[in-house]
Amino acid sequence: MTADTRDLDALHAALDADPSDRVTRLALADWYEEYGDDVMAAGLRWMVGFGVRPGRSGGRHVWRRFGVGYEDRQVFLPDDLFDRLRGQVYPAAEAVGTKGYRSRRAAEEALCRAPVSPAVATA
Q1: pLDDT, tens only, 66-109
Q2: How do the domains of the chain map onto residue ranges?
Q3: H or E element, residue 55
Q4: Which of 20, 28, 81, 101 has the least C-beta neighbours within 10 A?
Q5: C-alpha–C-alpha distance, residues 75 and 33, integer Å
Q6: Are 77 and 111 in contact (CB under 8 A)?
Q7: 3-class DSSP assignment, residue 62
Q8: Which residues contact 15 (CB under 8 A, 6 or more apart)?
Q9: Which residues contact 13 (CB under 8 A, 6 or more apart)?
Q10: 49-55: long-range contacts at Cβ-Cβ below 8 A with a sequence spacing of 24 or more?
């Protein structure tokens, strides 16, 4: 089946407008599953199940290690999962334990495509 990227782009645009929208994130997971990307589908469902999503800091979309000061608890990831993420590690002292990305989509893709699927991670 050929993927209709217009639907994919529309789902991502909806999440850019409202990153807390769990229903849209689940619809996005369904889209990825329908087009054979089970890793992304599982990761997005894991995000919804554990209530996590990237936050914003300094113009970047970020994930944070548990215990790092931040007002939005939804950006925290378990240490073992955080360590597997690819991303820019912030060197500033106030951002220790933070990995940043150019977009919400890039942050979520990094989480979903961590070397071990987040679907098997424990929180």
Answers
A1: 765 556 678 888 888 888 888 777 655 456 688 889 999 999 99
A2: 5-118
A3: strand 55-57
A4: 20
A5: 24
A6: yes
A7: strand
A8: 21, 24, 25, 28, 104, 105
A9: none
A10: 50/123, 52/76, 52/77, 53/19, 53/20, 53/25, 53/104, 53/108, 54/19, 54/101, 54/104, 54/107, 54/108, 54/111
